[in-house]
Structures are given as structure tokens and as C-alpha cells.
Amino acid sequence: MTSTRNVAADQLRKFIASAFEACGMPAHHAARMGELMAEADIGGQDGHGVFRLPMYIKRIQAGGMDIDPDIKVISERTATALLDGGNGPGHLVMSRAAELAVEKAKTCGVAWVGARYSNHAGPAFLYARMPLAENMIGLYVAVGSANHMPPWGGTDLLLSTNPIAIAIPSHDEPDIVLDMATTVAAYGKVKTAADRGETMPEGWMIDKQGQPLTDPTRASEGLLLPIGGPKGYGLSLIFGLLAGTLNGAAFGKDVVDFNADAKSKTNTGHFVIALDIEAFMDAEAFKKQIDGIWAEMKSSALLPGVESIRLPGYRLAAVSAEHRENGIEIPAALSARLDGLADELGIKRL
Q1: Which of 12, 23, 107, 135 could form a disulfide with 38 if both were Cys (CB 3.0 to 4.6 A apart)?
Q2: What domains are defined for the chain?
Q3: How far apart are CA 314 and CA 126, in angstroms?
């Protein structure tokens, strides 16, 4: 039995890149995939990093995802654009979308870039954070790559986790990064719980009789619950319309379950917004004010049993620092799958 192993971030990046190169992906694309997928694991989003590699490779081998996509602008105005992702990996498509949004926002102050004919792109925070390097605020929304939630009060799986991430830069404190699904738990967390032999808390899923479902190995029988009841359902619906329908991408019954179907094109939709802080005020002054917000929030009196106030992005920064220094834990079950994948592709094991 393969044991749990601790892997350095750079080692993980190189392993992921080598797997894609073994499938014929151009080296520059493979390196970018390795960088972004490893960044998911570094940030503690272990359901969206190397965990997804076997599934991505399966889709490539089955013809469901292109390794050298023709990503092109098919509609454009001064502050907007729509990309056709060429059925490429979502990481490559949305990297290009974020770059274009930043480029346009330098002129317009704000830019919105949507994409269709894309694929699963990993955690939302990756793309919301990209504009931060240019003193911009980033916002990213996607249609999830499989439907796991019904409309409020229903049982038909017509909605996905449809995540949103918003990143706001600070000066000395960690950047504020909100990354959340519109469901109580992202489906990746369900899959990693099954991988680790853990149970799910009540409140993540219910069965079709409305009873709590806590066994993640039975997730295919269940329904993910929205955050805030009907409010989360409403957010999932609106995000799906904006990231899916508006872009000419799949939404509702047209969403392909990439967990079950490796051959069909998913036509995944996303969008990213870049907002130039300098369009409103001096960026350095703004970031120092964000530091002040950190201090103000953390100074709040605490409820009994609460150790400290945290803001969105605190855990991401802390976990990232720890993983960069000490490596990333790969559970035994995942290690075994990755070893099998490496042997199949003829590359060095992780």
C-alpha cells in the first residue's frame, strides 16, 4: 500500500507538468498547468489540485479536452471580451481571460472577460488573485463542471456549486480573498472526504427524501445544499446565467458531468473582472486602508470560545506559507493513483 507522502511544491509542479507533456501537451502549456494546479494544493484547496490530475488526463486521452487549444477572442468591445476556449483546460483559458481583463482595465478602469468552450479550471481564487499584481481588484465566477444541486425545493440536479472569488489587495496584511461555492461545501471536498475515509458533517448533503447524508461514498445519491437556503440557490442561478448563458456556455440540464463523461465537450463558462483601484483612488493609500480594516475587524470583542477574528484570505496566506516551506501532504489513496498514472504515462513517480 502506498503511504501518505509529503511533497515539495516545486516537485509537485514538475510532476504535473511532466504528466501533461507525456500526453503531448506543449511544454509551455504543461508548465502553466503545473504551476496553477500546484498553487491550488499550496493554498490548501486539495480537492482542486493534483487530486484532479488523473481525471484531466483521462479526459485528454478520451478526446474530451484539447491539449493545444486555439484560445481566441470572438467578441470584443473596449472594456469587454468573450473568449472561445477551444475546448482547452480551464486553467489556460482563464489565465488568458485574466490577462486580457487586466490589459483592458489599464485603459478603461474596469474590464469583464467571459469564456465559453472551456473546462474545469481548479479553485476560483487563482483567477481572482491575478489582477492583484497590477494593483487591481479581481472577481471570478464559473459554472461548476457537474450539477450536484437542485433548485430550491426540488430534487432534479440542475445547478452546480457555481463558485465566486473576489480578491482585494492589502499593503502589509494578507490580501483579502473570498473564495466560496454557492453550496455549503464544494463537491471537491466531498470527493476528498471519500478519499480520506472521512464522513461529511450534517448540512453538506441530503438524500432525495430530505434526510442528512454523511457518507461521501454515497454522494451520487445525494443533493448538495445551498448556502443560506434559498439565497444560495438564487446566487447559484444568477452566477450560472452570467457565466454560462451570457457567454453561450452550458447551464442547467446542458452541463456535462465531467466526473462521469470523459469524452463530451463540457462547454464550461466563466468570467473574470479586473477593477483598477487607481480609477477611484491612490492604490497604495487604498491598500493601507485595507490594513486598517484588518486591524479594526480583529480588534472586535470575541464571543465565548472564539480565539480570534479572521478575514477571508487569512487561512489561504497561512496555509500557503506553511506548504511552501514544509511541503504538501498527499494522502495514501491519492498517492497510489498518482503512482499508477505515472507508470501508465511512463514518467517518474512523484
Answers
A1: 12
A2: 1-62+320-350 (1.10.1530.10), 77-183+226-282 (3.30.1370.60)
A3: 15
Pairing mode, if any, of strands 205-206 and 212-213? antiparallel
Contacts of 284 (CB under 8 A, 6+ apart): 171
Alpha carbons within 13 A on the beta-carbon side of 19: 30
* pLDDT tens digits, one per residue of 111-138: 999 999 999 999 999 999 999 999 999 9
- Interatomic CA distance for residues 328 and 23, integer angstroms: 25
Cα–Cα distance for residue pair 47/303, rounded to 1 Å: 32
Cα separation, 21 vs 17, whole angstroms: 6
Residue 134 to residues 109, 183, 206, 313: CA-CA distances in angstroms?
12, 31, 43, 18
Q: Between the CA atoms of 107, 113, 118 and 121, what dihedral angle is there, to the nearest 10 degrees?
A: 80
pTM assigned to the model: 0.94
Residues 6+ away with beta carbon under 8 Å from 331: 4, 195, 196
243-271 pLDDT, tens per residue?
Answer: 999 999 999 999 999 989 999 999 999 99
